[in-house]
């Protein structure tokens, strides 16, 4: 799980994205924001015996609206992929 998260978060951080620890629906999680502070998605962590067996995410812009202004997810993904290719 840690390797998967590192593969996602590293290029995202290179383009100014932020993973903001936050309680989401009563569970530990995070809000991912683009460089302008707009919401890209949310994560919630299921924790079992001190481990994280599952991370759930919400990507639907209609459901993210109450969290704040919503980012253009496809634009952020394209930019993060370009940043990852440049780093490789």
Number of domain modules: 1
Largest sheet geometry: 4 strands, antiparallel
State the total count of DSSP E strands: 4
Strand content: 35-45%
The outline comes out as flat
Give the CA-CA distance, first to last residue.
21 Å
Overall radius of gyration: 13 Å
Low-confidence stretches: none
The helix tally amounts to 3
Tell me, rounded to a whole number, the average pLDDT.
Answer: 89
In what order do the strands lie side by side in the largest sheet? 1-2-3-4
Structural classification:
alpha+beta
**Helix share bin:** 25-40%
Order of helices and strands: HEEEEHH
Would you give an account of this structure?
It is flat, with a radius of gyration of 13 Å. The chain has one domain. The chain is α+β, with helices and mostly antiparallel strands and 88 residues long. The longest helix has 15 residues, at 73-87. The protein has helices spanning 2-14, 61-64, 73-87; strands at residues 18-24, 27-33, 39-48, 51-58. Strands 1-2-3-4 form a 4-stranded antiparallel sheet.
Characteristics of this structure?
single chain; 88 residues; alpha+beta; 4 strands; flat
């Amino acid at each position: 799980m840690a390797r998967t998260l590192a593969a996602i978060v590293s290029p995202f951080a290179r383009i100014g994205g932020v993973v903001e620890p936050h309680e989401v629906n009563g569970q530990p999680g995070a809000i991912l924001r683009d460089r302008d502070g707009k919401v890209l998605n949310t994560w919630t962590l299921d924790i079992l015996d001190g481990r994280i067996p599952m991370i759930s995410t919400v990507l639907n812009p209609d459901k993210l609206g109450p969290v704040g202004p919503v980012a253009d997810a496809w634009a952020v993904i394209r930019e993060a992929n370009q940043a990852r290719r440049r780093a490789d």
